Amino acid sequence: MAILFKATKMLESKIDHFLDAVSEGNLVFKQGIQDYLENNHNRFAEHVANINRLEEAADKLRREIESALYEQSLIPEQRGDVMRLLEASDDVIDTAKEVLLQLDIQQPRFPREITGDLRRLSEQVMQAAEALVLAARAFFRNISAVKDHLHKVYFFEREADNLGMTLMRTIYGGSASLAEKNHWRYFITVIDSLADKAEAVADLLGIYTIKRTL
After folding, report:
1. pTM value > 0.85
2. pLDDT tens-digit map of 94-143
3. What is the mean pLDDT of residues 31-57?
4. Of 50, 52, 70, 147, which is most buried, counting CB atoms within 10 Å of its CB?
5. What is the CATH number of the domain that holds 96?
C-alpha cells in the first residue's frame, strides 16, 4: 500500500481496516448460511448481528477514506478510481448483509435434497469474494500480484453460476408447489449474486491495474 499512499499511514490503515471488514463479512456470510441450513438459530442470529456491525463499520471507513482523499488532496490522478473501487467493494458486504437479513425475515424452508449444494454454493461465493479482497489488497500493496487473484474471482464466480443452475434444475424438477420453487429460486439467486458483485469489482480492478501500469 505504501506504493500508492506514501503520504499518510492513517489512510493506509483505514483502507486495511475497510478490507478487513469486507473480508470478515464474507466469512460471516458463509457461516451464517451454513448455520441457517443446520437450524442453528442462535448462531445464525449472531451472524446477522455481526454482519450488520461489519457493514456499518465498512460504510464509516469508506466515508472517512473518501474525505481524506479530498481533504488531503491525495493521488488526485487516481482518486476517482480508488473511490469507485471502494464503493464497489462496499456493495459486496452490502449484498452479504442483505442475503442474511432476507433469510432472517423470510425464513425459507429448504428441502433436504438441496441443502448440501446450497452449502457448496455459499462456499464458492465466499471464495470468489475473498479472492476479490486479496486482489484489492494487492492493488494497493503490490500491483504485479493483482492478476494472481483476479483469475480466482472469475473461476469461483463461474463455479457458483454452474452450481446455481444445477440447483434450479433440481428444484424445478421436484414436486413442490410453484410458489415454493420460486421462493427457493430467489434465495439461490441472491446468494449467487454475491459472486456476481465480486466479479463486477474484479472487472474494475483489472481496468485500474492496467491504467496504473501504463
Report:
1. yes
2. 999 999 999 999 999 999 999 999 999 999 999 999 999 999 999 988 88
3. 97
4. 50
5. 1.20.58.220
The pLDDT of residue 120 is: 97
How far is Cα 89 from Cα 19, in angstroms, rounded to an integer?
Answer: 8
Q: What is the DSSP string of 108-132?
A: ----HHHHHHHHHHHHHHHHHHHHH
Task: Decide: helix, strand or coil at residue 170.
Answer: helix
Assigned domain for 158 exists: yes
CB-CB contact of 42 with 100 (8 Å): no
Neighbours of 196 (CB within 10 A): 15
| Residues 170/117, Cβ–Cβ less than 8 Å | yes
Residue type at 23? S
**Model confidence over 89-101: pLDDT tens digits?**
999 999 999 999 9
Question: Cell numbers at residue 58, please?
Answer: 465498512
Distance CA 107, CA 87 (A): 30
Domain hosting residue 90, numbered range: 9-213
Max CA pair span of the chain? 62
- Other Cβ atoms within 10 Å of 9 Cβ, number: 11
In a domain? residue 133: yes
Opening angle at CA 162, ends 157 and 166, nearest 5: 145
